[in-house]
Amino acid sequence: MRSFLGRDILSLKDVERGEFLQIFDVADRLRPYAAERRNGDLLKHKTLLTAFYQPSTRTRLATEAAMHRLGGHVLGFSDAKMTRAGDFYQESIKDTVHMLEYYGDVIAMRHFQQGAPQEAAKWASVPVINCGDGWGEHPTQVLTDLYTIFKERGGLDGLKVLCVGDMRMRTMHSILYAMSQFDVEAFVVCPPEMSLLPEFKAEIDELSVLYSEKESVEECIADADVIYMEPVVQADYTQSRVEAASEHGLTPPQYQVTRELLARKAKSDAIVLHSLPRMDELPPDVDATRHARYWIEAFNGVVMRMALLSLVLGAVE
Ligand code: CP
Q: Is 228 helix (H, G, I), strand (E, B) or coil?
């Protein structure tokens, strides 16, 4: 198995089964820091640089919280407009990263351009962690999600996962890549204009991912062990920022997971995950059902980032 020391975390396409299990094991070992709300000193000599060119609540703050929990230092920007990359100069990723690598020991980057973290990794002498790139991938979120499923369902093999939402979304790409490493079957539900792109389908076919496309949540929810959600009322992820519209569409019923539908058709032990933020596809009254796991998923976001930072910085094996 390859070492994680100094490794970029850019895509889940190249993460092997044993490596997923290794990451989950490290997450389990570090989990008490977050669960007991205490800070340690595992990374006290290290600094995280967060370079966020697109808005974020969870990913940036969970990554920063993870670094604080392990006694490390944090600096960065959450609005590229206040840097030279976002003003008159439009400074390139190459030039920006040549600065950032002197300021921190690991760079966590979110960008509206697909492939931007890969470009950063080409020039950085420190590890780069992809925190979401355009429609591309979102590996740290999906590692969080897989870890949540692993903990809540006692493993991944043998599960049927219903993926509903915009299939152009970066989380959907990362989770379908990751499924190639587990004995998991996916049901994919989305509006026709948000379907899996042909080139992505070719890739997951090549990876022998087992999936089938369905018309509605209702059609397959009864068979699902995990319901994995994204909005279909969605921002344009190729933009650095999208302001709230005065009006936006509503989610058609075939892409919603409601309390009534869960009660009527879901397995009693099915779990619902959503990387958040949500729109009306997941009404708040689902929060109080036994199926909801998205708040645990959010907590695990800190645990997973502790594991990834510790691994790429060589503090754990
Ligand atoms: N799940 C997720 O990526 O959320 P943020 O956009 O708030 O980071």
A: strand
